[in-house]
């Protein structure tokens, strides 16, 4: 595709298709609906399948089935719809299936849900939070790659702005390197051979009557530890000599970065860190970026969730202050008054002017 | 001149009207017609011509609760151009 | 920024302007928002056009131009309009307050023009056409092509009406009255 | 006719007259709502609230509202209510009824809510014979999210994802929810009405009354489906709504009583009976 | 008779003989399992796997297994399989089939799984006309968690929470899932069998074959319900299982073909037809 | 009731009934099933209702309806079943309904789900984690009180051990003080008066067509802040002069406390802290208990979840080491080998012998 | 002495048997009877007496896959006490 | 600790002992666990009885007495048995290894006794009765009352058999051979 004005929702669907995604299932919910609509329009054109599932629970089940056959497949919703899928998310992670999940969230209140796993037990999804459509096109493709590489679900955290902004982007397939063969997938061909396969979250192997969840769960934990070491990503700007570091993610980070650039232009020693992966959280990068900072300001559009991870990364090495807040519109879609360049700049300035430890 | 009799009449809260026109065919004697003018919301609305029977059909089909229906104790006659 | 009441075609108009700008090799980013539930609430959209990739977020605090289809949700938009900015409104329906001292005001009888073409619902495109002509933001052919691309399949029957509306609007504009592209190449927002 | 004078309809008549019908039902706190022009849901809402008033049940009613365009009435209907999540109203109604057995508990749901997201809720509730009334506003689309196909969309019906009409081979078949519910052991009353014309609106009210009476007599589960116009989701002009409803939806989801007084009538039987014309039931 | 000698059954006969039936189906990796004595599920499992073998479909089958006692066969059945969550198998099967249209995709679910937890999954899948086969092992209880009542438990049936038999007034009515599914537009084949005796087991296999053939011919959704004994959940001695199944469950969930070759037969019709005796269908 | 040997599950049901609970709905799942069974047996005897719901989603819906009428009502499951209820949990919290939720978890892997809220958006449940049946009897009753006092869901975090241990307990109604009248509940009596009520998560009031989620969510946050200040509870032993402090919760804490008492008996300077409320987490109490400690050892039966809260409470003021692990049995019910007094003691001793910063 | 003819026979994997007794009434000629003895799992199991027809019913109803069924090419006669 | 195969009544036996102890004003805590799925796996139970409230958790590392219905899952239980502890097994079915040097071993033909009473499934209760007699943990009337309380409604038909089994077991025990309540009042575990 050449550079063309495209809605964020469409860009994500196109990027997924460029990455080889051939199955999608979802149920409409603002602001996720258009992602579903674009998949529904485009997948049949490339020989894929999009099902307008009858509910979120059925959507995730369908995606589970599709991804089990080795196909690249995805599902999604808003955070509310994803709440309904939590049992499946937890278990699909145990089944080690490379499902990609799109959360077109209503704001940033789903940070915990995305990064801690809203379901039962110990499991994690890799969470990618693009700042804009351009990055979304890249990260959507990366999501499919990481999912396959780790055999673990990957969640793309977007929001109303990402879904509904139009921008001209160039979408072409990206190459992230080789992947192992999907020698675990079921295609029906191995029955009766004694080597038939099973995709399952219970921790059994074909032919063995017993299950061993303890060691399966521990293996999973070891995998998650490895992901934590290897996959953290973040963007930093002006952090070397920053006295105040602003931390923000996703669409809201665009407001933060804009303000920080403006302030830098005015000579203010302020820096910016944006976790691109919300899990694994880029703790080390954040810690070194904040080395020497007098204040770390966390801008998020919720009651304070990512701030836990910032504090855990810094463990008291710098004062951490919250400069975000819950902020939504009358429809609850997450397009609140905080999403304003001047307001964001004002919040940052308040920290600059305050003594170390912040304005509160 | 001739006279047309109305056995009933209606009030129409035209500012509430959204111009859907559902009331027009619903009126058995067809005494409702859409206005040329538009209300504050920018919609045309129904206007009543003589001959209402007070049957209440318009009210039942109006999604915006615009109508009230009255039955005259004595039919009212309207003089109209021939 | 463009503002109106849901269903007035404001989003389509903004999208057409954005798409036309991209056709002319500019950078554009456009976002539509709804201020209430889906029906009957206000609908705003923000369009940022520039010569270089746009680092501004899709919601702005200040705007260089404001187009208004209806006065009902005009106030917050007007408050964001920079001194010297362009205010283009849909007369005579528009009854909002205009500050002719601070802003360059243009009144375009968009609804009457569109109604004359047989479809009041194309008023927003008349306004968009007039805006393009007045500011030189984009050319008419780009607008028309952009409109074609922007129409969803279930609106295809409106192609001709929309094209006529854009053309009539372009006609009704005041070319050169408020150039979008100053000599220094800076970006309007 | 257009040469006839336009009469004053801005105020009540001067001549002696009796008001025989009010603009909005008394149980609506305001006549304003932001549903689309030509929407059928407010019509169903009217008769639902009027049926409650007429049975003198206003002060014992609890309405459990699903999520769809009708949710707009959740704040404005003047009966005690519980706003449920999408699809979950029948279970919520069950819990409320069990704790307040003396009240009249009903749900207000759309086809997306009841037949997609929460299909098993209403089936289980009916099978259990819960003494609640589930009311379905069926327009064959998710109106609220933009007019997508639902599990009740009939073959050939236009929706946002079936602009050329629902196609069985690609989109599957519609569910006749009324028939499924009617045959369950716990269901005492089931009926399907439509608001495509004044007679239909009036008949829908009678069905609602019977359903509520069934509940008040403690006979079991009751169900009323009301077909409503959604010109927005069908992508048609508002005046075409009633005709489209009648010709497209109404020939599949045929109106009539499906279970009453212990007697079961299938939709197939209703179709046979009506022989191409309006069913004579109710 | 007891004075007759006991013959050696520890090894194959010495005299010339042909083996006409094997202990376990070839598609089972081991004959060991930990289901209860007298359980009917292994019997259904046998014919399910044999039907696949007989249709020469072993190397194209994908089984999607729900959660219940039958889950024990998920690791031991030698066909490619996906272990689904409780209630979710029909959607999982849908996703798999859509990506592997050439394969034979079936679910294996219990009544708790299919008719309680995931009721709407199977209904939606059927309405959509998905080309998958859903297999229900119906014992009227949650065997795995201790024998509680399910949505198919018939009136009068003993379960852990209905030790004196299910009572309609208190527990509600059973759902005849086969009838609901049969009448949906997307359903091409639906049948109900039972494993209470050898003839029933053999007939269940014929039904499974027909269902799979329906799928392989691409005619739409297919469904086979098999009534199975659960002496543990019914709190009865194992030898009483088949009789209890036949007399209690079998008179409500009557066996027979509910939809085949475009023809719909309701359970009520099956009952009428059989006049108190075994239904002659299939 | 007089002192009688009773299963944990039964004790919880009896305690709930003593607290006035008159409605329960649930769906069987090990090890929660017996809680449901006891409610099913007992509620009808006291004029209440227990519904064996057809699924977890329907169970939570029923409980939502019951609690909306002003009745004391509860639902529950294992963490896996609760995963299915997450959409409802999030929204029920917004609707400010005093629902009590019982999680008979399969181990301690549901800590995040319980304390962060597995659903969408910003919301919190008060989480009570009894150490044994005796405490469960008290905390179950407290749960109903706190739920009503704060109009917020309260979750009781138990596990297999709590559910299936038999002990002799004395269950009688406890008095936690006055509560405001439930002037928000719907009983059907106010229709047509112009003052009818609505219980809803959308933030509207009867008669107003608009909604205001922004201020509703902020009000909710303020309430949660207040709960955080006022309701944290914990148990400490021997912390005054402890060089090593062991932190554990729930059933596993009984093993920790037993070991700490043994070690203290042998003169070892080890202390013990047990959060009774997992949310609000007793951060202040923990911080002062750990004041001066050379090591803080966190014993939990999962991949490391509560340790986040311990670190957030201490912010680097003492080294925090994990001495727990994922540990389950072949059935996955959470009765793993870690649940052994000598093993737990061994883990603690390893920390004692290690240099500050712990054995890893 | 008289002779009973077996047209078929079975093998019984008695260690797998869980003693459910389903095979007993399922056998048309009723040639299966439960043992006095118990297997390793502690269950009694069926024993075969002369007269098997090789019909396979036992196999079809056995939940524990204990049976294999054979048809003799020539019926086998068992001498039994009168 | 008691061990057996699922379905052998081990849990009931443990519960009866615990309940009987409570009836005699002791403190008791008892926990049953299943080592696999519900059917056919091992089933263990742990019973802690004492004179004072019990602060030990319901899973122990060491035990004072072990009762075994079957040898299949005996090993881990035996390993927890303290030197000098009581091992009481269901002979002759039990084929596990016994360390007669370290432990005081008692063999009780529980299954034959129960079978003689008409129901092998009551074997565990025979063992429980014998254990109570041998250790003096509780008296027979308490056991019988405890059994009545412990039976779920769907097992009421077994009341008489169970009672006979407890009595026969109590009879078969060796009173005073391994006293549970030493003079000093310490608690066995
Ligand atoms: C769990 C969940 N999924 C999706 C939505 C988004 N949603 C809101 S309304 C609606 C459709 C409503 O359809 P219907 O019930 O038929 O009502 P209508 O709008 O047609 O009146 C959907 C999908 C939601 N609110 N919750
Ligand atoms: C979401 C969820 N809820 C509950 C359970 C617990 N559970 C496991 S099996 C089962 C019942 C199975 O019943 P059925 O499908 O009829 O199979 P059966 O055991 O009777 O063969 C239940 C409730 C679960 N695994 N998952
Ligand atoms: S009351 Fe009847 S006659 Fe009068 S305007 Fe209404 S529909 Fe027409
Ligand atoms: S039906 Fe009502 S809203 Fe529609 S045109 Fe008539 S008066 Fe207006
Ligand atoms: S979208 Fe359809 S259902 Fe919703 S308000 Fe508009 S017309 Fe009515
Ligand atoms: S509980 Fe019932 S279904 Fe489960 S294995 Fe036992 S007999 Fe079979
Ligand atoms: S094969 Fe037939 S006759 Fe022979 S033992 Fe089996 S059931 Fe009896
Ligand atoms: S049917 Fe099978 S398991 Fe049952 S008694 Fe006969 S041989 Fe044994
Ligand atoms: Mg609808
Ligand atoms: Mg079952």
Folded structure, characterized:
With 360 residues, chain A is α/β, with parallel strands linked by helices. Helix content of chain A is 39%, strand content 18%. Chain A is built from 13 helices and 15 strands. Chain A has a 7-stranded mixed beta sheet, sandwiched between helices. In chain A, strands 10-12-11-14-15 form a 5-stranded mixed beta sheet, sandwiched between helices. In chain A, strands 1-8 form a two-stranded antiparallel ribbon. In chain A, strand 6, helix 7 and strand 7 form a beta-alpha-beta unit. The N and C termini of chain A lie far apart (49 Å). By secondary structure, chain B is mostly beta strands. Chain B has one domain: Alpha-Beta Plaits, CATH 3.30.70.20. In chain B, the strands form 2 sheets. Chain B has a two-stranded antiparallel ribbon. In chain B, strands 2-3 form a two-stranded antiparallel ribbon. The longest helix of chain B is centred in the last third of the chain and has 5 residues. Helix content of chain C is 35%, strand content 22%. The longest helix of chain C is centred in the first third of the chain and has 14 residues. Chain C has a 6-stranded mixed beta sheet. Chain C has 6 helices and 6 strands, in the order βαβββαββαααα. Chain C has one domain: Pyruvate-ferredoxin oxidoreductase, PFOR, domain III (Pyruvate-ferredoxin Oxidoreductase, domain 3), CATH 3.40.920.10. The C terminus of chain C is likely disordered. Chain D is an alpha/beta fold. Chain D has one domain: Thiamin diphosphate (ThDP)-binding fold, Pyr/PP domains (Rossmann fold), CATH 3.40.50. Chain D is built from 10 helices and 11 strands. Chain D is globular, with a radius of gyration of 19 Å. The two termini of chain D are 36 Å apart. The relative contact order of chain D is 0.14. Classes of the chains: A alpha/beta (360), B mainly beta (82), C alpha/beta (189), D alpha/beta (282). Chains in contact: A-C, A-D, A-E, A-F, B-D, C-D, D-E, D-F, E-F, E-G, E-H, F-H. Chains A and F meet through helix 4, helix 5, helix 6, helix 9 and helix 12 of A and helix 4, helix 5, helix 6, helix 9 and helix 12 of F. The structure holds thiamine diphosphate (2 copies), iron/sulfur cluster (6 copies) and magnesium ion (2 copies). One thiamine diphosphate sits at the interface of chains D and A.
Give a quick rundown of the structure.
The complex is a heterooctamer, with two copies of chain A (about 350 residues), two copies of chain B (about 80 residues), two copies of chain C (about 190 residues) and two copies of chain D (about 280 residues). In chain C, about 35% of the residues lie in helices and about 20% in strands.
């Amino acid at each position: 595709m050449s550079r063309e004005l495209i809605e964020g929702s469409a860009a994500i669907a196109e990027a997924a298709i460029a990455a080889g995604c051939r199955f999608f299932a979802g149920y409409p919910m603002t602001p996720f609906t258009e992602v579903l609509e674009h998949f529904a329009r485009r997948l049949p054109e490339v020989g894929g399948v999009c099902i307008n599932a009858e509910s979120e629970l059925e959507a995730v089940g369908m995606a589970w089935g599709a991804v089990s056959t080795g196909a690249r497949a995805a599902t999604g919703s808003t955070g509310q719809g994803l709440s309904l899928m939590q049992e499946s998310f937890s278990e699909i992670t145990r089944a080690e299936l490379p499902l990609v999940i799109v959360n077109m969230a209503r704001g940033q209140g789903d940070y915990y849900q995305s990064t801690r796993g809203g379901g039962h037990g110990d499991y994690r999804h890799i969470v990618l939070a693009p700042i804009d459509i351009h990055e979304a096109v890249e990260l959507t493709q990366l999501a499919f790659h990481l999912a396959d590489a780790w055999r673990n679900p990957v969640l793309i955290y977007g929001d109303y702005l990402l879904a509904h902004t139009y921008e001209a982007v160039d979408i072409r397939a990206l190459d992230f390197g080789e992947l192992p063969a999907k020698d675990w997938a079921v295609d029906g061909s191995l029955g009766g051979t004694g080597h038939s396969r099973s995709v399952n979250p219970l921790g059994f192997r074909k032919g063995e009557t017993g299950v061993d969840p303890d060691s399966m769960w521990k293996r999973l934990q070891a995998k998650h530890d490895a992901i934590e070491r290897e996959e953290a990503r973040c963007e930093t700007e002006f952090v070397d000599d920053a006295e105040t570091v602003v931390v923000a993610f996703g669409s809201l980070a665009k407001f933060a970065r804009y303000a920080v650039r403006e302030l830098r232009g005015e000579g203010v020693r302020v820096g910016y860190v944006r976790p691109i992966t919300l899990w694994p959280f880029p703790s080390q990068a954040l810690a070194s970026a904040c080395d020497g900072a007098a204040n770390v300001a966390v801008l998020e559009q919720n009651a304070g969730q990512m701030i836990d991870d910032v504090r855990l990364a810094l463990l008291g090495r710098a004062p951490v202050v919250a400069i975000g807040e819950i902020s939504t519109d009358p429809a609850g879609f997450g397009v609140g008054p905080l999403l304003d360049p001047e307001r964001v700049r004002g919040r940052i300035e308040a920290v600059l002017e305050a003594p170390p430890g912040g304005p509160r | 001149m001739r006279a047309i009799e109305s056995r009933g009449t209606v009030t129409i809260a035209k500012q509430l009207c959204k111009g859907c026109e559902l009331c027009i065919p619903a009126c058995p004697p067809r005494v409702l017609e859409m206005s040329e003018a538009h209300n504050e919301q920018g919609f045309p609305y129904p206007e009543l011509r003589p001959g209402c029977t007070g049957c209440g059909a318009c009210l039942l089909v109006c999604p915006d609760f615009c109508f009230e229906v009255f039955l005259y104790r004595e039919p009212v006659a309207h003089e109209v151009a021939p | 920024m463009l503002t109106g009441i849901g269903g007035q075609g404001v989003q389509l108009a903004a999208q057409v302007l954005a798409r036309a700008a991209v056709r002319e090799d500019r950078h554009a980013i456009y976002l539509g928002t709804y201020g209430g539930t889906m029906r009957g609430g206000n609908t705003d959209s923000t369009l940022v056009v520039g010569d270089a990739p746009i680092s501004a977020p899709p919601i702005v605090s200040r705007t260089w131009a404001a187009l208004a289809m209806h006065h009902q949700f005009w106030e917050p938009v007007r408050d964001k309009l920079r001194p010297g900015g362009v205010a283009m409104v849909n007369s005579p329906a528009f009854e909002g307050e205009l500050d002719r001292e601070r802003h360059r005001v243009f009144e375009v009888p968009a609804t009457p023009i569109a109604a004359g073409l047989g479809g009041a619902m194309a008023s927003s495109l008349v306004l968009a056409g007039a805006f393009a002509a007045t500011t030189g933001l984009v050319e008419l052919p780009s607008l028309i092509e952009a409109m074609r691309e922007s129409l969803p399949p279930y609106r295809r029957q409106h192609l001709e009406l929309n094209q006529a509306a854009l053309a009539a609007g372009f006609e009704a504009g005041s070319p050169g009255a408020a150039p979008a592209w100053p000599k220094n190449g800076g970006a309007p927002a | 006719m257009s040469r006839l004078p336009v009469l004053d309809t801005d105020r009540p008549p001067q001549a002696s007259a009796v008001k025989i019908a009010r603009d909005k039902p008394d149980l609506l706190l305001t006549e304003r709502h932001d549903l689309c022009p030509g929407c059928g849901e407010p019509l169903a809402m009217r008769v639902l609230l009027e049926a409650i008033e007429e049975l003198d049940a206003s002060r014992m009613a609890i309405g459990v509202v699903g999520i769809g365009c009708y949710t707009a009435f959740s704040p404005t209907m003047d009966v005690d209510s519980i706003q449920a999540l999408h699809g979950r109203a029948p279970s919520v109604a069950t819990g409320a009824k069990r704790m307040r057995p003396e009240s009249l508990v009903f749900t207000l749901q759309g086809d997306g809510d009841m037949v997609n997201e929460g299909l098993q809720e209403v089936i289980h509730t009916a099978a259990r014979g819960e003494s609640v009334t589930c009311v379905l506003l069926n327009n064959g689309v998710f109106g609220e999210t933009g007019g997508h196909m639902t599990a009740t969309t009939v073959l050939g019906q236009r929706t946002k994802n079936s602009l050329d009409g629902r196609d069985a081979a690609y989109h599957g078949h519609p569910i006749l929810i009324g028939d499924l519910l009617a045959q369950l052991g716990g269901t005492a009353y089931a009926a399907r009405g439509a608001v495509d014309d004044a007679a239909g609106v009036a008949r829908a009210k009678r069905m609602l009354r019977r359903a509520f009476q069934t509940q008040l007599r403690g006979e079991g589960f009751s169900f009323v489906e009301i077909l409503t116009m959604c010109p927005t989701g069908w992508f048609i002009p508002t005046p075409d709504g009633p005709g489209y409803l009648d010709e497209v939806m109404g020939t599949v989801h045929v109106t009539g009583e499906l279970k009453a007084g212990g007697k079961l009538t299938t939709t197939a039987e209703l179709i046979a009976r009506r022989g191409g014309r309006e069913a004579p039931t109710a």
